[in-house]
Design goal:
Length: about 260
């Protein structure tokens, strides 16, 4: 076995028992401003975690560091046991990481099905092929499955520009699930949704495969606490408190700092 093959084999073997995500001493500076300071965070495979905090707490910067959009100033990032601190975003995607963004990034002039198909194609080995998909194309079948999973079957032929805002957010979830990711970062998926759409989002996230872990950033604590099994509170770029949803919801310090003394 070559040295490279040995390294790859050991990495694959290690991911079987490694944590999905490990952050150690993660720090991100913007000049003299510390957006993140000494973040230590561990997420188990299949774990669903909410990261909460007020605006400016460092939540989106945390996601940007995990995905490689911002390199950390200090600290390490490990995905399934592998140090990816200095990997570019596309290499993290190849290792099973996906993300949604606060601002919709969709092809408005294409149909729902075409958007999802392109996402599936983009993370496949055939992404640079110019051949048209066949009727029995496996990627098209995967796209159809994702459309059904996010409750958009009746809109599969609809142009994305004609979808409601809530449907566009559902579509973004489908795009993030393309290629069977192992870990997903959801950045405020409930923002701008109606109460009915939020309930539907909760159902979609709750029904994701059990092996697929995720972190959700969300201002709507009713959504976050219903889909997460653990919660990390952030304040001024630091981890302020961690616990189970019920513990965080009833914590006096959390209520005083974020909820104005109570939460109904």
């Amino acid at each position: 076995m070559t040295a490279r093959a040995s390294t790859v084999a050991s990495r694959i073997s290690a991911t079987g028992t490694a944590n999905a995500l490990e952050l150690r001493g993660l720090t991100r500076m913007f000049g003299a401003l510390a957006a993140l300071t000494d973040i230590n965070l561990t997420v188990r495979p299949g774990e669903r975690r909410a990261v909460l905090g007020s605006n400016g707490a460092g939540k989106t910067t945390l996601f940007n560091c995990i995905t490689g959009d911002f390199p950390p100033t200090a600290g390490t990032i490990r995905l399934f046991g592998e140090d990816v601190t200095h990997f570019p975003p596309h290499e993290r995607i190849r290792r099973g990481l996906r993300r949604t963004y606060q601002i919709s990034l969709l092809f408005a002039g294409l149909s729902v099905r075409d958007n999802v198909y392109l996402a599936c194609r983009g993370v496949s080995r055939y992404r640079f092929s110019l051949l048209r998909p066949r009727r029995d194309d496996a990627l098209m079948a995967s796209a159809e499955g994702l459309i059904e999973a996010v409750h958009l079957s009746d809109a599969r032929e609809t142009l994305v520009g004609d979808l409601s805002y809530g449907q566009q957010r559902q579509l973004e979830v489908a795009l993030a699930l393309a290629g069977a990711p192992r870990f997903v970062l959801f950045d405020e998926p409930a923002a701008g949704l109606s109460p009915t759409e939020r309930r539907e989002l909760v159902e979609i996230l709750t029904n994701l495969p059990s092996h697929m872990g995720f972190i959700i950033i969300e201002h709507d604590m009713d959504v976050a606490l219903r889909v997460a099994e653990s919660v990390t509170m952030m304040h001024n770029g630091r981890i302020f408190k961690e616990g189970k949803p019920a513990e965080i919801e009833s914590d006096a310090e959390v209520q005083a700092l974020y909820l104005g003394g109570g939460h109904g």
